């Protein structure tokens, strides 16, 4: 596996060798995208003990500890990022910085996910936590636009698979989606979402042993009210987990999904056909998948990663970093690895950005606008 080197301050940004390929990011965790220097500053504010207070060394610590080959061990690194983001001010700061880093990564649109229930140990309510992230994302969007750029940023709220709060989080998502309906800002691109608004629900955390079907009440509520759902599946568990996400969860997108072909190498089985023919987007995160051992069935390099087979056999593949800090990565870095290590072309990279634009949880008019900007830049 190729090891990336984290940098002081911002997580890894543009590699600089791709040319003008703007991107749409569908799978990015807010608590996995903090700047190392910001973690140090926030830890000092609340007295949180870190492994080191040197930003460069801390960034490397996150990468080293995420390279475990296990999703469960990978997830332990989040104790520090969630530990320093238990106040409204901290959440606002990291959300704003997230947007600025995303803009530096040439993102036109990003859907950042996080679990509000993991940020209430110091007295925040779920509602105030979501308000804080919305405010930070909106500030970041405003700053990018004030400098002549464009980005849109929305929230996906996660419930944790191994906990029992999914019904409450689903209701929170439903309330926020209803509140955001019809609030497009004056002068915005047609269909552009309100900055920082909540658009969908996810289940995150340990996958194996914690099926989607355990959260049926929450998922029924969302389905009955036509609220979009994307679910982590096919990362730490196999194809049956993906089936569970589609059947019990009625997922419109699958977070990761890289183990879809584990028992179906020719992609001829019923589950594979359903995912491909229905154009269910797979939110693939190659560097993260290497770290957690999600693709050990195929190998341990970007060249071995099933993303290439999935894309070239007609699946709706999208590309995301998952956790920029833990993988010292970005969308552009993931693209550069596909070129250098897996033989992808710029046209293929453009095609998966178009996939992401069409799968985004935004109105169709804005999807089309994003596609037009991608095609124009890559013409």
UniProtKB/TrEMBL annotation:
Organism annotation: Kocuria gwangalliensis
Cofactors that this protein relies on: Zn(2+)
Coiled-coil region(s): none
Record Pfam families: A_deaminase
Family as reported in the entry's similarity comment: Belongs to the metallo-dependent hydrolases superfamily. Adenosine and AMP deaminases family.
UniProt EC number: 3.5.4.4
PANTHER family (alphabetical): ADENOSINE DEAMINASE
Top EC class for this record: hydrolase
Keywords: Hydrolase, Metal-binding, Zinc
Name of the protein in question: adenosine deaminase
Transmembrane regions: none
């Amino acid at each position: 596996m190729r090891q990336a080197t984290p940098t002081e301050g911002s997580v890894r940004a543009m590699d600089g060798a791709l040319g003008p390929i703007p991107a749409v990011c569908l799978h990015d965790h807010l608590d996995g995208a903090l700047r190392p220097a910001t973690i140090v500053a926030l830890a000092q504010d609340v007295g949180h003990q870190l492994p080191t207070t040197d930003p460069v060394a801390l960034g490397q610590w996150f990468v080293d500890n995420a390279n475990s080959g296990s999703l469960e061990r990978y997830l332990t690194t989040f104790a520090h990022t969630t530990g320093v983001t238990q106040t409204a001010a901290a959440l606002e700061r990291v959300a704003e910085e997230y947007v600025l880093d995303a803009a530096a990564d040439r993102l036109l649109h990003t859907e950042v996910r996080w679990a509000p229930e993991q940020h209430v140990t110091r007295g925040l309510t779920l509602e105030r936590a979501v308000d804080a992230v919305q405010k930070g994302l909106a500030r970041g969007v405003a700053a990018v636009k004030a400098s002549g750029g464009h980005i849109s940023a929305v929230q996906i709220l996660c419930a944790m698979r191994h906990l029992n709060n999914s019904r409450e989080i689903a209701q929170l998502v439903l309330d926020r989606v209803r509140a955001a309906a019809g609030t497009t800002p004056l002068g915005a691109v047609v269909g552009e979402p309100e900055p920082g608004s909540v658009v969908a629900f996810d289940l995150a955390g340990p996958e194996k042993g914690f099926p989607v079907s355990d959260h049926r009440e929450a998922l029924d509520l969302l389905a009955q009210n036509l609220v979009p759902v994307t679910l982590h599946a096919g990362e730490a568990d196999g194809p049956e987990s993906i089936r569970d996400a589609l059947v019990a969860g009625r997922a419109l997108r699958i977070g990761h999904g890289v183990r879809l072909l584990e028992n179906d190498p020719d992609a001829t089985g019923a589950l594979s056909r359903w995912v491909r023919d229905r154009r269910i987007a797979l939110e693939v995160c190659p560097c993260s998948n290497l770290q957690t051992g999600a693709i050990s069935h195929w190998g341990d390099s970007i060249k071995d990663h099933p993303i290439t087979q999935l894309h070239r056999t007609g699946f709706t593949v999208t590309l995301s970093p998952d956790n920029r800090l833990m993988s010292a990565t970005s969308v552009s870095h993931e693209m550069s690895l596909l070129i250098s290590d897996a033989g992808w072309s710029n046209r293929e990279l453009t095609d998966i950005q178009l996939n992401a634009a069409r799968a985004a949880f935004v109105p169709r008019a804005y999807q089309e606008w994003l596609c037009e900007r991608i095609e124009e830049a890559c013409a």
